């Protein structure tokens, strides 16, 4: 029975017919027309074009633009040239307090005396439960108190303990008349660890960075941005704001910041004074953010296609070598 040969079929020297698909692919490769590379470029080009169109539409016309943040009325929010004094400092963990307690002299010619049994002098950290350790004098609760309230509490505590111990003393020389008003108590903040503000910077699609700084009562937005070395390379100088904390999910308090006006024109109207818990946010540049989004989408696709191309090229190379060895003996 005759055998019909089609285009591309071949017959080896033993008379066996075959269709050398590998040979055809090898010939195309030798001529420089690699179909896998062409297909890869076509796919990547179409994906990139589609994503660019989608990103362009998303930032221009397909969605409603976010409304501009309104400025508060002049004089209602403290800024660089209109600062206010913060309310009395409330002690909280993990503040550090410096405490000194001495007995005042009876006459001006005497020196203050240290407390008997165990002096109180030095730095004391506020514990997690809001107390401070004063040794044998006890552990008073100071969280939520002002410095004046803490001073009076320590004075009353020490006077009460002294009265109990000295009243039970058998030696008459130990019975001293130490009234609370004779105790000189000094309490001050050594480390403002519980009051702070935050600076957050957007990473243009690759996360966010956060920084925490202690608040001393005189900081403005320019101080906060300077603490992190200025606007990040991917940040937008025209998209900075202060988010003031609000209790129970109340209405947002967003204060826009004109960073260009502050740094280049000396405009202090939006250089807001910072309060405890304020968040300074620096948004990333829109074009850099879109580029990051595009790279995150294309990178895995390009990697998969690259592996596929490498595998295909390796298989074709192995098959080409084997077929070339067979032709050499023909």
Structure commentary:
The strands form three sheets. The chain has a five-stranded mixed sheet. A hairpin with a 5-residue loop joins strand 1 and strand 2. By secondary structure, it is an alpha+beta fold. It has six helices and eleven strands. It is elongated. The chain has helices at 21-30, 35-60, 147-167, 221-227, 259-264, 286-328, and strands at 10-11, 17-18, 96-103, 113-114, 120-125, 183-191, 196-202, 208-214, 235-244, 253-257, 279-284. It has three domains: 10-58 and 289-328, no CATH class; 71-85 and 195-284, Outer membrane lipoprotein wza domain like (Outer membrane lipoprotein wza fold like), CATH 3.10.560.10; 96-191, wza like fold, CATH 3.30.1950. Mean pLDDT is 80; it is low at 1-14, 16-35, 59-66 and 326-330.
List the helices and strands and how they pair.
Layout: E1 10-11, E2 17-18, H1 21-30, H2 35-60, E3 96-103, E4 113-114, E5 120-125, H3 147-167, E6 183-191, E7 196-202, E8 208-214, H4 221-227, E9 235-244, E10 253-257, H5 259-264, E11 279-284, H6 286-328
Parallel strand pairs: 7-11
Antiparallel strand pairs: 1-2, 3-4, 3-5, 3-6, 7-8, 9-10, 9-11
Helix pairs in contact: 1-6, 2-6
């Amino acid at each position: 029975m005759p055998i019909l040969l089609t285009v591309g079929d071949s017959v080896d020297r033993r008379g066996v017919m075959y269709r050398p698909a590998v040979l055809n692919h090898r010939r195309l490769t030798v001529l420089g027309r690699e179909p896998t590379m062409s297909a890869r470029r076509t796919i990547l080009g179409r994906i990139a074009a589609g994503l660019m169109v989608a990103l362009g539409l998303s930032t221009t016309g397909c969605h409603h633009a976010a409304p501009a943040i309104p400025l508060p009325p002049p004089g209602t929010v403290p800024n660089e040239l209109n600062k206010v004094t913060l309310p009395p400092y409330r002690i909280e963990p993990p503040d550090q307090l410096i405490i000194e307690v001495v007995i005042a002299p009876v006459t001006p010619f005497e020196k203050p005396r240290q407390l008997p049994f165990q002096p109180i002098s030095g730095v004391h950290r506020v514990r997690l439960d809001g107390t401070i350790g004063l040794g044998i004098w006890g552990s008073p609760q100071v969280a939520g108190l002002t410095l004046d309230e803490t001073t009076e509490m320590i004075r009353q505590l020490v006077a009460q303990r002294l009265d109990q111990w000295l009243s039970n003393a058998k030696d008459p020389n130990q019975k001293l008349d130490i009234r609370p008003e004779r105790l000189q108590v000094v309490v001050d903040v050594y480390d403002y660890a519980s009051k702070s503000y935050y600076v957050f910077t957007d990473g243009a699609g690759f996360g966010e960075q956060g920084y925490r700084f202690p608040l001393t009562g005189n900081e403005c937005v320019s101080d906060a941005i300077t603490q992190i070395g200025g606007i990040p390379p991917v940040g937008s100088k025209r998209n900075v704001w202060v988010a003031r904390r609000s209790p129970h999910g109340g209405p947002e308090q967003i204060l826009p910041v004109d960073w260009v006006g502050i740094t280049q024109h000396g405009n202090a109207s939006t250089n807001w004074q910072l309060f405890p818990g304020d968040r300074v946010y620096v948004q990333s540049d829109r074009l850099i953010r879109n580029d990051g989004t595009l790279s995150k989408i294309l990178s895995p696709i390009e990697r998969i296609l690259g592996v596929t191309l490498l595998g295909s090229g390796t298989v074709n190379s192995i098959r080409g070598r084997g077929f070339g060895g067979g032709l050499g003996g023909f």
